[in-house]
Amino acid sequence: MSPRARERRAGASGRSSPSGRSSASRRSPVRRRGRRPGRRRQRVGDRAAGLLVAAVLAVALVAAVVDWLLDHWWVMAVVAVLAAGAGAVVVHLKRQRARWEAVRARGLRYALPQLDALHHARFEEAVRDLLLRDGCRDAVRVGGRGDLGADVTATDPYGRRWVVQCKHRRDGAAGSAVGTPDLQVLNGTARPVHGADVAVIVTNGRVTGPAVAFARQQRLHVVDRPALGVWASGSRPLWELLTSLPPSRERTGGS
Questions:
Q1: How far apart are CA 240 and CA 130, in angstroms?
Q2: Of all helices (H) and strands (E), which one includes residue 123?
Q3: Which helix (H) or strand (E) segment is 200 a member of?
Q4: Is the pTM of this model over 0.90?
Q5: How much is the pLDDT for 192?
C-alpha cells in the first residue's frame, strides 16, 4: 500500500471514531407513563357503590319510619291535635293583642306638657299613634335623615294620603316659632315626592303669621299648639278639626 493510501485510510478512521462515540452517547427519550385507566374506573365504581349504599340505607330508613308510624298511628293523631291547638292559641293571642291595641288606641290621650317633654323622635311617634287612633291603619313614622320633609305618612279611612311634617319645640310655646321656610320644604316635597293629598305641619310650638298665610296660599294645613292640644287630648280625628280638605278618594272614584 502506498503512503498516500495509508494517510487516507488513517484520516477516514479518525473522522469516523467521534461520530461513533456521539451516536452511542445519545440517550433514547424517556417515555412518560400515563395514568392507568383501571384506577379511574375503580374510583368511579367506588363512588357509585357508595351512592348506592346511601340510597339503600335512606330507603330502608324511610320504610322503617313508615312502618313504625303505621303501627303507632295514634302518635300522628296526637301530633296533629297538638299542632292544631298551638295554631289556635297563636291566632287567639294575635286577635286579643289586636283588640288590646284597638282599645289602647281609642283611649290614647296626650296632654301638651307630655308632648313638650318628649324627644323629637318620640314626638313623631306620638303623632303617628294619634293617626292610628283616628283610624289610619297604615300610619308610619318615616322621619330621619333624608326624609325630604315627611316625618309621618298615613292613609285615612276616606282614602286620602296624609304627609305630616313634625316640628317639636322643647320649650313649647316659648320655643322658636315655625316659619315660612319650614312650610316651603313641606310644600316642595309633600305632593310631588310623597304623593300627598293632605300636607300638614304639626308643632307643639308657635307658627308665624307669614307662615300661616303661605300655608293658606299653597293649600297646606297647620296644626299649631292650640290645635294640637285639642287633637291630642280629645277623641275627634284630625280631619274633623281641619277645614278645606280635599274630597274623599272613595267618593271621587265612585262618582
A1: 13
A2: helix 120-134
A3: strand 198-203
A4: no
A5: 95
